From TrEMBL:
<comment type="similarity">
    <text>Belongs to the ATP-dependent AMP-binding enzyme family.</text>
</comment>
<dbReference type="Pfam" id="PF13193">
    <property type="entry name" value="AMP-binding_C"/>
</dbReference>
<dbReference type="Pfam" id="PF00501">
    <property type="entry name" value="AMP-binding"/>
</dbReference>
<dbReference type="InterPro" id="IPR025110">
    <property type="entry name" value="AMP-bd_C"/>
</dbReference>
<feature type="domain" description="AMP-dependent synthetase/ligase">
    <location>
        <begin position="33"/>
        <end position="418"/>
    </location>
</feature>
<dbReference type="InterPro" id="IPR042099">
    <property type="entry name" value="ANL_N_sf"/>
</dbReference>
<dbReference type="InterPro" id="IPR050237">
    <property type="entry name" value="ATP-dep_AMP-bd_enzyme"/>
</dbReference>
<dbReference type="GO" id="GO:0016878">
    <property type="term" value="F:acid-thiol ligase activity"/>
</dbReference>
<feature type="domain" description="AMP-binding enzyme C-terminal">
    <location>
        <begin position="468"/>
        <end position="543"/>
    </location>
</feature>
<dbReference type="InterPro" id="IPR020845">
    <property type="entry name" value="AMP-binding_CS"/>
</dbReference>
<dbReference type="InterPro" id="IPR045851">
    <property type="entry name" value="AMP-bd_C_sf"/>
</dbReference>
<dbReference type="InterPro" id="IPR000873">
    <property type="entry name" value="AMP-dep_synth/lig_dom"/>
</dbReference>
<protein>
    <recommendedName>
        <fullName>Long-chain-fatty-acid--CoA ligase</fullName>
    </recommendedName>
</protein>
<keyword id="KW-0436">Ligase</keyword>
């Protein structure tokens, strides 16, 4: 191992109160939840719009639901699918699955028939908890193709008493003869509780599916160790305490949402504020209402807030611990967010396979920008985490300032992919997670993601990282979103194309943007083509779907895919 990785200079960047290593003091996530339950049973555990549920209420509801699961046939190690938006039932169902000795399967509520069928088959789930609207639109059709032994339905209005938000005014409660009703199961099993399940740190707690931006989704096996550790790590890193209010704008099915929301909430005893699905108006209004102190979201969440016409009407000063993760952050956007909120926006980095954060900018520090690539630092390895950057060709450590693949090792690395031993062996070797991200490290231990290895463009033999081009585009005052891909070029092999969404009320021509980039980038890097879109296609967690952009190009130029260097436009596994 190279000297810099052995010496760990990043530890000097930590706040004095942050330890290099923390202990895992619970045997499973339930124990972590129950510690906060004992300490503050009558304090809010979940905030849902303006309503709330106490720790005691959440405990009682989840115990009743767990009893129902067992009666309905759930066995130890059985899988419970959670096909819900960010509603209280999500957290209650997850806890109930563990109380019954099962595994929670996190399902994106945007999945359609074919996608949901794949996830159900892959996970082998026996119980599915879903929204009534999703049953009608999707699940009822999937049941004709795939066996789902038990389906439990609920709706977004449950647990609301103070106000029906605009986004939910069209919701009508519906019952289905072929499904069990969530509320009725809770009522029937109220007051019941099961014997404490035997759950170890090494047991799989949930399956969190990779976003599938470049290939078939894989179920990452997040263990109780992974979740407990990162819940404690987040709490320690940002000093969450009794006076903090956690907001979860990230979807709970995504690892960022489930760790920086519920897991951090259980570890700290703080309430977690949910608002069904992201809406900029509700986001801003509920920050002010609850006086939210801590939130983590993809940069697209903050961009949407910046674009809200009434952002200046809201008091956002309570947010003193604000992180962005899940998608790249440009220095230009970071500055805009900080001006709007009046506090620093810190950057964190993690993957599904690292159970969310594994690097972050220490609280109180300014994230440096790499002078060569213009990339904003993703911070330093967090508590208990080791990192290496290795050559893709030799697999050996590279020195500081040299790009290579980022490898991560720590207690939050998943045990593998569900029923995919070959994929697991490729991704995790001797405990080291191969992230697939091109990164560099500086002398202080700050890391910079240059780009994804699979997204690299080779133009005239030169390497171009889309992220670098995107960061320059974000410097233009009219650009709201930007995503860059490589497209076939008869002379250069590949050339750079940018897809751009403009801020409302702004105008700029393709040529003006090309000239803007030309002044700031090397000749082989600036985009030769720019296409304007109303918005860039993205996952629910905020990651841009370059695969969809490549597929769009391939449909326009179907023969081009036959002779594309490095398979540029083909969807990459």
């Amino acid at each position: 191992m190279s000297n810099i990785y052995f010496k760990k200079p990043w530890l000097k960047e930590y706040e004095p109160s942050v330890k290099p290593n923390i202990d895992i003091k619970y045997n499973n996530v339930l124990e972590m939840f129950q510690a906060s339950l004992r300490r503050k049973p009558n304090s809010p555990c979940i905030g849902y719009f303006e309503d709330s549920l106490t720790y005691q209420q959440v405990d009682q509801e989840s115990s009743a639901l767990a009893s129902a699961f067992v009666e309905l046939g759930l066995k130890p190690g059985g899988r419970v699918g959670i096909y819900l938006q960010n509603v209280p039932q999500w957290m209650i169902t997850q806890l109930a699955s563990w109380k019954a000795g099962g595994i929670a399967v996190c399902l994106n509520p945007m999945l359609k028939e074919r996608e949901l069928s794949y996830h159900i088959k892959d996970s082998g789930l026996t119980i599915l908890v879903c929204l009534e609207s999703l049953y009608d639109e999707v699940v009822s059709k999937v049941r004709n193709q795939v066996d789902i032994p038990v389906v439990i339905t609920t709706n977004e209005l449950l647990y609301l008493s103070k106000r029906i938000p605009d986004m939910l005014k069209g919701v009508v409660s519906r019952k289905f003869s072929s499904c069990h009703d969530y509320s009725q199961l809770i009522r029937v099993h109220s007051g019941q509780s099961l014997a404490t399940p035997v759950l170890s740190l090494d047991d799989t707690a949930m399956l969190t599916y990779t976003s599938g931006t470049t290939g078939v989704p894989k179920g990452a096996c997040n263990t109780h160790r992974n979740i407990v550790f990162n819940g404690l790590s987040v709490t320690h890193w940002v000093h969450l305490g009794d006076n903090d209010i956690v907001m979860a704008p990230a979807p709970l099915f995504h690892i960022t949402g489930s760790i920086t929301g519920p897991a951090a909430g259980y570890a700290s005893g703080c309430p977690v504020i949910l608002f069904c699905r992201f809406d900029p108006s509700e986001f801003l209004r509920l920050i002010e209402y609850w006086k939210v102190t801590y939130l983590v979201g993809a940069i697209t969440v903050f961009i949407a807030a910046l674009s809200h016409p009434d952002i200046k009407k809201y008091n956002l000063s309570s947010v003193v611990k604000m992180y962005s993760g899940g998608a790249p952050v440009s220095a230009a956007i970071q500055k805009q967010v900080e001006r709007a909120f009046g506090n620093k926006l810190y950057v964190a980095y993690g993957l599904t396979e690292s159970t969310a954060p594994c690097t972050a900018v220490p609280h109180g520090r300014d994230a440096p920008v790499d002078p060569n690539y213009g990339a904003l630092s993703i911070g330093v390895p967090t508590c208990n985490v080791d990192c290496r950057i290795v050559s893709a060709e030799t697999g050996k450590d590279v020195p500081e300032g040299t790009p290579g693949e980022l490898l991560i090792k720590g207690p939050q690395i998943v045990s593998g992919y569900w029923n995919k031993p070959e994929e697991t062996a490729k991704a995790i070797k001797n405990g080291w997670l191969h992230t697939g991200d091109v990164a560099i490290i500086d002398s202080r231990g700050y890391l910079y993601i240059v780009d994804r290895i699979k997204d690299m463009i080779i133009a005239s033999g030169f390497k171009v990282y889309p992220r670098e081009v995107e960061d320059v585009l974000y410097e233009h005052q009219a650009v709201k979103e930007a995503a860059v891909i490589g497209v076939p070029d008869p002379y250069r092999g590949e050339t750079v194309k940018a897809f751009v969404a403009l801020k409302e009320g702004t105008k700029v021509s393709e040529q003006e943007l090309v000239e803007f980039c030309k002044k700031k980038l090397a000749a082989y890097k600036y985009p030769r083509q720019i296409e304007f879109l109303p918005e860039i296609p993205k996952t629910l967690s905020g990651k841009f779907l370059r695969r969809e952009l490549r597929d769009l190009e391939l449909k326009r130029h179907p023969k081009a895919g036959d002779n594309i260097p490095n398979g540029t436009i083909r969807s990459r596994a």
